[in-house]
Amino acid sequence: MLDPKKIEAWIAAGLPCESVAVQGDGQHFEAVIVSGEFAGLNRVKRQQRINAILKPHFDSGELHALSMKTLTPEERKANG
């Protein structure tokens, strides 16, 4: 069973993040990722960036499903 902390580490290793939080049941996961790198990118481009980081893990079958919320630090502050 895949540990959400492992996914957090993969994302953090590939993208400078203010915060990364992943929750899941071992197969399906939800991530909230806050990074200044998302500034100026739309939701699709942000998710493509994360998917590119995680591609080897998707391709190997180790990671099956990840839904994500991607925010800039400013968006997180605005959303409380």
Describe what you observe in this structure:
This protein is an alpha+beta fold and 80 residues long. It has one domain (4-74): GMP Synthetase, Chain A, domain 3, CATH 3.30.300.90. The protein contains 3 helices and 3 strands, in the order H-E-E-H-E-H. A 3-stranded mixed beta sheet has the order 1-2-3. It is globular and about 35 Å long. The N and C termini lie far apart (32 Å).
Brief write-up:
With 80 residues, this protein is an alpha+beta fold.
* Biggest sheet overview: 3 strands, mixed
Q: Which strand order spans the largest sheet, edge to edge or round the barrel?
A: 1-2-3
How many E strands? 3
Helix count, per DSSP? 3
Q: What count of structural domains?
A: 1
* Top-tier CATH class: Alpha Beta
Strand content: 25-35%
Spatial extent as radius of gyration: 12 Å
Helices and strands in order:
Elements: H1 4-14, E1 19-24, E2 28-34, H2 43-60, E3 65-71, H3 73-78
Parallel strand pairs: 2-3
Antiparallel strand pairs: 1-2
What descriptors fit this protein?
alpha+beta; three-stranded mixed β-sheet; GMP Synthetase, Chain A, domain 3; 44% helix; 3 strands; 3 helices; 80 residues
